[in-house]
Amino acid sequence: MSDYKEIMNKVILWGQQEDDIRSIFIVGSMARSDKPADKWSDMDLVIVTSDVEKWLQSEEWIRKFGNPQISFLERTHVGNIMERRVMYDGSCIVDFNFMKLEVAKTILESEEVQGVIARGVKVLLDKDSVTEVFHNTSSLIKNKEVPEFSEFKNDVNDFWFHAVYTAQKLRRGELLVAKSNCDEYLKRLLIKFVKLQTIMKNSTNQQSWHDVRFFEEWADKEVVQEFQGIYGKYNEESVWDALFETMKLYRKVAKQIAVELEYEYPIIADQSADKLVTNYYKGRTYLKFEE
User: Fold this and answer.
1) What confidence tens digit (pLDDT) does each residue in 105-164 have?
2) Packed helices 267-282 and 149-172: angle between N→C axes, nearest 10 degrees
3) Which InterPro entries is this protein grouped with (predicted)?
4) What is d(CA 242, CA 181) in angstroms, rounded to the nearest whole number?
5) Under 8 Å CB-to-CB from 135, ≥6 apart: which residues?
6) Residue range of the domain that includes 15
7) Is the pTM of this model over 0.85?
């Protein structure tokens, strides 16, 4: 049965023996003090190599660290690099993130990646001083600056456009398309503003994480409570309810942000979309739409 300490030691030895492996370091819960690893954590390894394809195209090497039960390739949410995700016996999960040596410095200095590194990093191997860039990372987590009015306006218009789009798909009978758009696209725009709301309210003592990690802890408590009503079941009436509740919450958060930033809220987009969606809902028993 594999365990993380045993796997880590084997990874270090492997890296020392393979000439193309130039640097290996751990990020994520096993490298940070804030929200440290618990029994549900996996190991996130970043491997800088001069030959990424060599390791992505083969699976034999993963047996050096334990007995793999599941293995597949996936792009990372942060950094957009390829990783091999492996579940070893004993439920040890290791993400092997491969990064080309020639672009490593550029990727590691990106704002998104620096945000992850700033939370904690543990260097296991570094043959070329690739990780020197870590010394310039602030101990504080830097959130993105608030958006310019043009970005804020665009996001709000984007949301209301796709609220109407979701209603049209519901009217056409494309239930899965409508539900997916409501649960994914609209929620992504909503969560972006919830993060911004967190930054503005808690600029120093509370920070949002990438994606929706630990959402229940950093988001506004009232918003978290209201999230209970913005996801529907796979039936038409439930998706309509979820759509209206999502619109209601987005409007509330977006208007609060507009007030805080002293931006003009795009009321015409809001009112026009709300009217259309309401009319589509009320007329659903007899009206059909065509593209």
Assistant:
1) 777 777 667 767 777 788 899 998 877 766 554 444 444 567 899 999 999 999 999 999
2) 10
3) Aminoglycoside_adenylylTfrase (IPR007530), NT_sf (IPR043519)
4) 11
5) none
6) 4-136
7) no
